[in-house]
Each structure stands twice: as C-alpha cells, then as structure tokens.
Amino acid sequence: MPTIDQSGWMHRAIADARLALATGDVPVAAIVLDRDGRVVGAGRNEREARQDPTAHAEILALRAASESTGDWHLTDVTLVVTLEPCVMCAGAILSARVPTVVFGAWDEKAGAAGSVYDVLRDRRLNHRVEVYGGVEADACAALLEEFFESRR
C-alpha cells in the first residue's frame, strides 16, 4: 500500500462528518481509498437519518467500496475514519479484509482499535489490520465535543 496523505484525507473526512449534523447524527465520517489513493467509498453516520443502528460511517463506506469495486474483499484499500472504530465496525473491517485503518479521535468508551479493545490487531483472529490512530485527533475530537455539548 503506497503512503497516503493521512492528514489531508482526514481533513476531507472531517468535512464529510460535518454533513451528518444536518440529520442530527453523530459527526463521524469514513473514506475508503484504493491503492492509488482514489476514493472508492465514503460514508458518514446515518443512524438517525435511516433509523438504522448499523448505519455507522465505516459500514456505509465499506458497502460503497464493495459496490464500486465489485468485490467484498477489500484487500488493497485504506480506511480513513474520524473516530476509532467500535466493535461492530471493527468486525466489518476484519470481514472485508481491510489491511489499513487510519483514524482520528480515540473512543475511550467504545473503541475497538486500541483504546478499550484491540479487535483489529487481535492475534486470535484470522486477519489483522495495520492501525494508525490519533491522526488530526484534536480536530476530530473537537467536532464530537461540540456536537455532544450542544445536546446537553
């Protein structure tokens, strides 16, 4: 996998995450890049918009990438997401065979890429992911903090 501009793509994901605010969804977004750095899938949280508990940014981005590539085996992609994946999303990432995940803010309550759990690198599983956490973490966390403060 070639080196990607992690900060640049994270800024794009942050901009996409802001779009989730229009539907009252938690502002999280994900982008799937192919080996040449082209976007093959993108998604943002749409649980409120769809009334679907599985409509997390990562799940929607993986579905879009599978559709655009014509293959559920996403063995040559990088997933960039503004928040550390949860257990459900980590399971989907593993099932899709995604080799690399880049995320922004750590999720100290439900993270599954190194904070609460480390599902993506669990040696007991048949696939492990290269994980780069904390990319533009302050900007990603600030967006989430603003969202939740506005709800209080």
Q: What is the N-to-C order of secondary-structure elements (H for helix, E for strand)?
A: HEEHHEHEEH
Give the N-terminus to C-terminus distance in angstroms: 42 Å
Q: Give the overall shape.
A: globular
Number of helices in the DSSP assignment: 5
Structural class: alpha/beta
Q: Please describe the biggest sheet, giving its number of strands, its sense, and whether it closes into a barrel.
A: 5 strands, mixed
* Share of residues in strands: 15-25%
- Whole-angstrom Rg: 14 Å
Helix content: 25-40%
Mean pLDDT: 95
How is the largest sheet built, in terms of strand order? 2-1-3-4-5
Total DSSP E strands: 5
Low-confidence stretches: none
Based on the model shown, name its key terms.
alpha/beta; 152 residues; 5 helices; single chain; 5-stranded mixed β-sheet
Could you please describe the fold and organization of this structure?
It is a single chain. By secondary structure, the chain is of the alpha/beta class. 36% of the residues lie in helices and 17% in strands. The protein contains five helices and five strands; from the N terminus they run H-E-E-H-H-E-H-E-E-H. A five-stranded mixed sheet has the order 2-1-3-4-5. The longest helix is centred in the C-terminal third of the chain and has 15 residues, at 137-151. The chain is globular, with a radius of gyration of 14 Å. It starts with 5 loop residues before the first helix and ends with a helix. The mean pLDDT is 95.
